[in-house]
């Protein structure tokens, strides 16, 4: 089978971007609007320019490239992912999908394809939320799934570890000039895409799990994406001397939190499908001889069924309140973000299946437990995703790896899927 796409060229791009923000442990750190992220953005704009793909940026910092269609009135086909990473992440999460989109459009040009509808690449701002603990900023701004004024408020309030607000980081980025001067946290409504003007959004991403590897398959079709909700929990008790205050007189925030964690685990285990995680926990004042007076922890609850997730989270919040009150302490639960589940578009899935048949590869569908920009896009348009096999299911880690062969296969299937949707 001769592929249309050029595997070597795509792989070289991926390895080049994989060097940006690469640390000594081999991990890549490109968090939103940091130095490495800005460098990757600059290189991406150059790549689009060089490829004749008409680069542009919007107020949220989303980067676009395109082949303009013969009929600009037709709804556009969007293909993309993200270039930001977690701290010390891999070279494949996000960048694979963005650079595949470039390869698909380059191949279309080389094959002399002049589409009726515009085919557009998008690299979304901040999918990971690693710097400001606030994710999906680009896709939320583009879809308006969080209203522009609300998003503006969130970005003014979200702080990084150095006390720089999200909005401030965006303003700093805009000072770079050129395309960057479009970035403006105070006019995010400008980033909103008219949903009537999108035919579909396609995204290729690494699987970040072992399902494809266990099936011995290089590429699979994503059937849907698990929704989730994220919140911050604060338990307040009373700090005190570890030696002088008796066990019955204590209001220890950490032991209360410990009981909460076990309850969270048990409720999720018995929910029939929800998963719940406390990934970050901070004890204050944080001294070996002081009874903890305050504990802050994050709570991440996900389920492919939005209804079941709602039930699970209500149970969890009730349990936390009961446990904390029973110990004479107080707690506060602050919702951070929530995203509905996304079911993949039948139209896009059919086009993908046809592409698999063309390259004579078995089709296999699997759900995504991880959230993606595609999930946010699912609020406004038809969405389809492909997964590329991840070695040992590892991701968000320097050892993250997908083979050149699997990446090429995924890109060829993407190319043929796009051809089927023009
Ligand atoms: Zn990703």
Structure, described:
This protein folds into 2 domains: 7-225 and 341-421, 3-Layer(aba) Sandwich (Aminopeptidase); 227-339, Alpha-Beta Plaits (2-Layer Sandwich). 35% of the residues lie in helices and 21% in strands. It contains 12 helices and 16 strands. Strands 1, 2, 3, 4, 5, 6, 14, 15 and 16 form a 9-stranded mixed sheet that branches. Strands 7, 9, 10, 12 and 13 form a 5-stranded antiparallel sheet that branches. Strands 8-11 form a two-stranded antiparallel sheet. The longest helix has 21 residues, at 306-326. It is globular, with a radius of gyration of 23 Å. The mean pLDDT is 97. The structure holds zinc ion (ZN). Zinc ion (ZN) is lined by residues 82, 93-94, 127, 205. Zinc ion binds at residues 82, 93-94, 127, 205.
Poorly predicted sequence stretches spanning 5 or more consecutive residues = none
Q: Which overall shape is indicated by the principal axes computed on the Cα atoms?
A: globular
Tell me which CATH architecture of the largest domain applies here. Answer: 3-Layer(aba) Sandwich
Number of helices: 12
Under CATH, the homologous superfamily of the largest domain reads: Zn peptidases
Can you give the mean pLDDT?
97
CATH class placement of the largest domain: Alpha Beta
Largest sheet: 9 strands, mixed
How many structural domains? Answer: 2
Please give the number of β-strands: 16
In whole angstroms, the N-to-C terminal distance is 23 Å
């Amino acid at each position: 089978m001769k592929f249309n796409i050029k595997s070597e060229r795509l792989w070289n791009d991926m390895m080049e971007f994989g060097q940006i923000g690469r640390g000594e442990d081999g991990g890549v750190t490109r968090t939103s609007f940091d130095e490495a992220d800005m460098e990757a953005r600059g290189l991406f704009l150059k790549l689009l320019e060089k490829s004749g793909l008409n680069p542009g940026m919007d107020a949220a910092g989303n980067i676009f490239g395109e082949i303009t269609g013969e009929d600009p009135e037709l709804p556009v086909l969007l293909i993309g992912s993200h270039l930001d990473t977690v701290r010390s992440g891999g070279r494949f999460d996000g960048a694979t999908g963005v650079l595949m989109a470039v390869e698909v459009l380059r191949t279309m040009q080389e094959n002399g394809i002049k589409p009726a509808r515009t085919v557009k690449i998008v690299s979304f701002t901040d999918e990971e939320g690693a710097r400001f603990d606030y994710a999906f900023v680009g896709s939320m701004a583009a879809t308006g799934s969080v209203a522009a004024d609300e998003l503006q408020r969130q970005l003014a309030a979200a702080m990084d570890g150095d006390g720089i607000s999200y909005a401030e980081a965006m303003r700093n980025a805009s000072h770079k000039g050129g395309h960057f001067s479009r970035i403006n946290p105070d006019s995010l409504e400008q980033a909103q895409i008219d949903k009537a003007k999108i035919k579909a959004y396609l995204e290729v991403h690494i699987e970040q799990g072992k399902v494809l590897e266990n099936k011995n398959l290089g590429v699979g079709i994503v059937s849907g994406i698990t929704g989730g909700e994220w919140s911050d929990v604060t338990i307040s008790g009373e700090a005190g001397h570890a030696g002088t205050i008796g066990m019955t007189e204590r209001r220890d925030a950490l032991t209360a939190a410990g009981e909460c964690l076990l309850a969270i685990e048990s409720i999720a285990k018995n929910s029939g499908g929800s998963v719940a995680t406390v990934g970050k926990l901070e004890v204050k004042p944080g001294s070996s001889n002081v009874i903890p007076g305050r504990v802050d922890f994050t709570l991440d609850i996900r389920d492919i069924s939005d209804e079941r997730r709602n039930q699970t989270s209500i149970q969890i919040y009730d349990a936390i309140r009961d446990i904390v009150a029973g110990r004479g302490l107080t707690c506060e639960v602050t919702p951070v973000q929530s995203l509905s589940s996304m079911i993949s578009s039948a139209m896009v899935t059919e086009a993908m299946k046809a592409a698999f048949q063309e390259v004579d590869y078995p089709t296999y569908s699997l759900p995504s437990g991880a959230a993606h920009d595609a999930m946010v896009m699912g609020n406004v348009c038809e969405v389809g995703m492909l997964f590329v096999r991840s070695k040992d299911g590892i991701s968000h880690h320097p050892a993250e790896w997908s083979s050149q062969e699997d990446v090429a296969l995924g890109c060829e299937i993407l190319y043929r899927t796009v051809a089927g949707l023009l």
